[in-house]
Amino acid sequence: MATVKKKEKQPVRERIRQGAAQWVRRDLVGWLLLLPSLFCFIFFLWQPLINGVRISFYETRGFDTVRFIGLENYVDVITNSSFINAALNTLKYGVWSIMLGLLVPVIAAVLLNEVVHAKGFFRFGIYFPCMVPGIVTSVMWTILLEPDAQGMLNYLLGRLGVGPFQFLQDPNAVVPIIVMTMTWGASGSTAILYLADLQSVNTSLYEAVEIDGGGILQKFLYVTVPHMSGMVRMMFIMQIISVLQVFQQPFTMTGGGPNGASETLGMVAYNYAFINNEAGKSAATSVILGGAIMIFSIVYMNVKKKDDTQA
């Protein structure tokens, strides 16, 4: 009986051995090439992400967990005035970002699409700010916007008999000015995407508008805008996702000031972790922020899938 069972199990072992050998021959090299990237992905992304979610449910001393407290960190964070102020500021960033960051690339793309001579020069010019590191852009604009008469922009305005202005020191002006610098540094890449989309417009549609007596405005309203609507919808959602993650520019240019007027949710998380040594509350803030980003990311993917299906 034992001999029969051994003979029955032998084919199974053989198939497993052959399958393993086949896997080694076929996939091992690929897995070896993938292993460094997979290790970095798990170690530098997923492990901190999961650990951050875990810490958000604990009372912490520095970055060490002390005891489990459930949702207490989330309640403390949401009811804190700095979080509420940063959330309202994020809303302001969003409004100004849509007004500037969404509109400027569209206008730039339309103008680039109409350029006849020196196309490469103008395309490089609009894209060049995207090649400048973000921290360099922030420092450059901070120097240009110095509040006294020796600041570059105030000096030029002073030659015209205007100013000086308190650009980044004005609570009412600081957010739109920061958004303006962000738009200068990032709108080029979006404009190139819009330009690529415009290149696919059927020129016969423009000719039809001309035959009907339409001008540039009619071409833009009845051909360009409908054609770009899908891309604009996706960029709109991407703009919101980017605004939720704003940190570098206000941190570098104003430190969240004046009086918290430019503070963002990312800065609130930073202050909890590195100023107040409250890693649990910092993690809770990051989880809330990450949840909002995830929601808009899902919306973005659904919109993109819908547009791809219709295309």
TrEMBL record:
Residues 87-300 form the ABC transmembrane type-1 domain. Belongs to the binding-protein-dependent transport system permease family. It comes from Candidatus Eisenbergiella stercorigallinarum. The keyword Membrane applies. It comes from the Bacteria. SUPFAM superfamilies: MetI-like (SSF161098). Its main location: membrane. The chain crosses the membrane at residues 28-46, 93-112, 124-144, 173-196, 230-247, 283-303. It holds the Pfam family BPD_transp_1. Keywords: Cell membrane, Membrane, Transmembrane, Transmembrane helix, Transport. Coiled coil: none annotated. One of its GO terms (biological process) is transmembrane transport. This is Sugar ABC transporter permease. One of its GO terms (cellular component) is plasma membrane. It is found in: Cell membrane. It is a multi-pass membrane protein.
